[in-house]
């Protein structure tokens, strides 16, 4: 029973796909590479970082990141290089400038617009005044509600 619980717990923890031959000798550079890899999307997997993915392209990207760091690039330069090569899709957290700004603002703008339309619609509805029953309707109502007895 304990083995099953341990297996379920281990399965729930995301495993890093970094292979031993990819790890850099310099622990500082390796830590930077791991941090950068967690923010880059695997181009094959859906919403999985290259740090977690075991796909071949993810391995290539991990090696590319490490290669650029060893060459002396800053974190920003590495990210810029990867984005220039593969496009902004490779970022797990897209930037909030340029055309992406529309994607960040549009949901809030549409929500505000919808609430405005709903508010206008609700405030324009007026209750219908109760005009009461006319003589014919009152007579019919009395006829339907009078006690006929057994």
Task: Write a brief caption for the model.
The chain is mostly helical. 57% of the residues lie in helices and 0% in strands.
How would you describe this protein?
- The protein is mainly alpha-helical and about 150 residues long.
- It contains 6 helices and no strands.
- It has 2 domains: about 1-90, Helicase, Ruva Protein, domain 3 (Orthogonal Bundle), CATH 1.10.8; about 95-125.
- The chain has helices spanning about 1-10, 25-40, 55-70, 75-85, 100-125, 135-145.
- It is elongated.
- About 15% of the residues are buried.
- Residues about 5-15 have low confidence and may be disordered.
What labels describe this entry?
150 residues, Helicase, Ruva Protein, domain 3, 6 helices, mainly alpha
What are the SSEs and their pairings?
Layout: H1 2-12, H2 27-38, H3 56-70, H4 75-86, H5 100-124, H6 135-145
Shape: elongated
Major β-sheet annotation: none
Summed up, the domain count is 2
Helix content: 55-70%
CATH architecture of the largest domain: Orthogonal Bundle
For the CA atoms, what is the radius of gyration? Answer: 33 Å
What would CATH call the homologous superfamily of the largest domain? Cytochrome C biogenesis protein
Instruction: Kindly estimate the percentage of residues that lie in beta strands according to DSSP.
Output: under 5%
Number of strands: 0
**Amino-to-carboxy terminus distance:** 75 Å
How many distinct helices?
6
Regions with little confidence, pLDDT below 50 for 5+ residues: 5-15
CATH domain topology of the largest domain:
Helicase, Ruva Protein, domain 3
Order of helices and strands: HHHHHH
| Average pLDDT number | 84
CATH class of the largest domain: Mainly Alpha
């Amino acid at each position: 029973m304990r083995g099953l619980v341990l297996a379920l717990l281990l399965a729930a923890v995301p495993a890093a796909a970094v292979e031993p031959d990819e790890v850099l000798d310099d622990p500082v550079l390796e830590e930077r590479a791991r941090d950068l890899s967690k923010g880059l999307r695997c181009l094959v997997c859906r919403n999985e970082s290259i740090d977690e993915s075991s796909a071949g392209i993810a391995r290539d990207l991990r090696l590319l990141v490490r290669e650029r760091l060893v060459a002396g690039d800053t974190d920003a330069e590495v990210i810029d290089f990867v984005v220039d090569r593969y496009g902004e899709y490779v970022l797990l957290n897209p930037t909030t400038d340029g055309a992406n700004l529309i994607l960040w603002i549009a949901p809030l703008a549409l929500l505000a617009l919808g609430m405005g339309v709903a508010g206008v619609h609700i405030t324009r509805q007026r209750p219908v005044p109760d005009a009461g029953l006319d003589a014919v309707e009152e007579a019919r109502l009395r006829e339907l509600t009078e006690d006929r007895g057994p």
